[in-house]
Amino acid sequence: xxxxxxxxxxxxxxxPLVVKRLPEHVQVDDPAVVKRLAKKLERQQIPLRSDYGYKxxxxxxxxxxxxxxxxxxxxxxxxTVIHPSxxxxxxxxxxxxxAGSNARSVALLHAFKQVIRDYTTPPNEELSRDxxxxxxxxxxxxxxxxxxxASMGNAIxxxxxxxxxxxxxxxxxxxxxxxxxxxxRYIEEKIVLAAKAISKYAIEKISDGDVIxxxxxxxxxxxxxxxxxxxxxxxxxxxxxxxxxxxxxEALRRLVQRGISCTYVLISALSYILPEVSKVFLGAHALxxxxxxxSRVGTSQIALVARTFNVPVLVCCETYKFCERVQTDSFVSxxxxxxxxxxxxxxxxxxxxxxxxxxxxxxxxxVYDVTPPDFVDLVITDLGMIPCTSVPVVLRVKNLDQ
Amino acid sequence: MPGADxxxxxxxxxxxxxxxxxxxxxxxxxxxxxxxxARETTALLRKVTAQARWSSAGDLMEIIRKEGRRMTAAQPSxxxxxxxxxxxxxxxxxxxxxxxxxxxxxxxQESLHKLLTSGGLSEENFRQHFVHLKANVIEAxxxxxxxxxxxxxxxxxxxxxxxxxxxxxMTVGRSRTVEAFLKDAARKRKFHVIVAECAPFCQGHxxxxxxxxxxxxxxxxxxxxxxxVMSRVNKVIIGTQTVLANGGLRAVxxxxxxxxxxxxxxxxxxxxxxxxxxxxxxxxxxxxxxxxLVFALTCTILSKVNVHCPVxxxxxxxxITLFISNIGGNAPSYIYRLMSELYHPEDxxx
Lengths: 402, 350
Hints:
The complex is a heterodimer.
Chain A: H1 2-13, H2 31-44, H3 84-95, H4 101-117, H5 127-145, H6 150-164, H7 172-204, E1 210-215, H8 219-230, E2 235-241, H9 248-258, E3 262-266, H10 270-273, E4 279-283, E5 286-287, E6 293-296, H11 299-308, E7 313-316, E8 345-346, E9 349-350, E10 361-364, E11 368-371, E12 378-381, E13 384-386, H12 391-401
Parallel strand pairs in A: 1-2, 1-4, 2-3, 4-7, 7-12
Antiparallel strand pairs in A: 5-6, 6-11, 8-9, 12-13
Helix pairs in contact in A: 3-4, 3-5, 4-6, 4-7, 6-7, 7-8, 8-9
Chain B: H1 2-24, H2 34-51, H3 57-74, H4 79-100, H5 112-118, H6 133-149, H7 151-157, H8 159-162, E1 168-172, H9 176-186, E2 192-196, H10 203-213, E3 217-221, H11 226-230, E4 235-238, E5 242-243, E6 249-252, H12 255-264, E7 269-272, E8 305-307, E9 312-315, E10 322-325, E11 328-330, H13 335-342
Parallel strand pairs in B: 1-2, 1-4, 2-3, 4-7, 7-10
Antiparallel strand pairs in B: 5-6, 6-9, 10-11
Helix pairs in contact in B: 1-2, 2-4, 2-6, 3-4, 4-6, 7-9
């Protein structure tokens, strides 16, 4: 109707103020929300994953799962509801086989490509609507295996949009090829080419004789360092690692294989090693609209101590990881990993072996934390080098583009 | 001959103590806590005073200094040994002065005027022989031992003055002093403790199990989550290996990060350290002496990689809010004064 059109035009001029409903996975302490989710999953015929272990009271609003109880154990194999490549992907996520923001997104997109290839439109249905409905239970399933990352969320939004934009008169084969091409283009543009562009900018910032500190295993930062090494920059790398994931060892392996000279420390040795460091390169899981950087837990600590020693901190992040959420601390929206990972055996004794039996003992295994923008000196994206506070500008530009 | 037996026994005890100290340096820290080390050192020095052959205070001080140098050389990182030697030397000086009847109470550092006018007055050679000096010194050392035995309890007694209910307290690694402190407060108040595990040795795990056994709500976090969780923490209470003369700390690895995070969130940082940890050494920032331990990386590229695993961190005094010791609470700026009461400036370099 005329009035409806009028209001949409008004909204188009003002910035789109969409207050999204809170996602379920940060409302675990609300029984109404949990019930609603259980009903939805039942409708989609997906098993509900149950929480494990004593949860620290500060995080009672988040899920805590055990790696020993993957969701696939509750499914019948072969599953009639969920495509096998999605089942495999879910298992890979929950066991940590596929980890890291870019890796998870790429794996997701490849799995969706397989789903699209195997898809046939049922009679009396339109591909653009039915395929989107088919994808919904898959996404719920993957969410149950491991909460979706910001990059995955953006990728899914893109695919859904592309599918809904398929004109109804398009033949099925044509539509499927078009969608597969779209996905390939997305991966090529947003991840591969973006990495190349970011490397180009970042290499300008690396000078000969630099001592570069990196944390954990960021595929983008590793790529930058390898490229810089190929371009004959002389530098050495300090890899900082932390328990319990110890991802730094993977980064160490990749860098040493290329021949880059590396040093390895744990995060508690940060104050000892920082006086030698000239730059810090960090990867990001997502960049939030208020300029905060969401990344692996420990990143904010590194930025804090680097700021104290006056070492520049550079964050490398592709634009597809920018998200419209805002967050000021690491509590409201985070992920809790398996608490059993914190157990360790030293001198033949595992102190925390029976932590479940002790009622007042809790183990906390956080996955992400947020770094305030005043700790970060520069963000290197495929659109250029920007300060942390320019993230909402980039988001607006991207929205207008689309 | 009884005399020779006693001497052999004494030498044996000293050798055993040195061996223990040397062994304590490889990896996970000393075999016994620093409180025990301090008591053992003082007991040994008492034995030396009782059994060694000396005629004047100067001789005794030479003997103690010699033994002290051997003990500190066995394990340089265990500063409590050196501290106790200095305390005993100060005791000897005081007893000597008391026997002489001179008022050594006037601190040489008290007034710059005195320092300039007296010139080379402190040319005391401690050569006079006093009959009761031995007994007096041994009695004073006994008093010191009693003081050492009560340090943890004295610190724990102050717990209720500093911890209120429903607090969230963060601590790092394992400290027997902090454990006693928190357990004492837990008798009357309910609060929550977050323990940072302190990789790679993860002493924090033991601390957490001990605290949770005393029905204190405890959470174990990884070192990487310290800053993430700090915004919810009301107080940070830590122990330390050594308190330096400028009010700084030499504490377990990772403490500097905790101190910086606490300062960023304006959270008070409280250090529970008994007086025997106070050392006349001073370190300024850059000069850290790591004990190079190679953390066992089980991967094939170990030969191509440098691995660093420092044991201690330096924390500057600006980051510390309060010291709680067996003689009460003090600001870090006051530590240098306490030092002058415990040790004599001429003994600072053993």
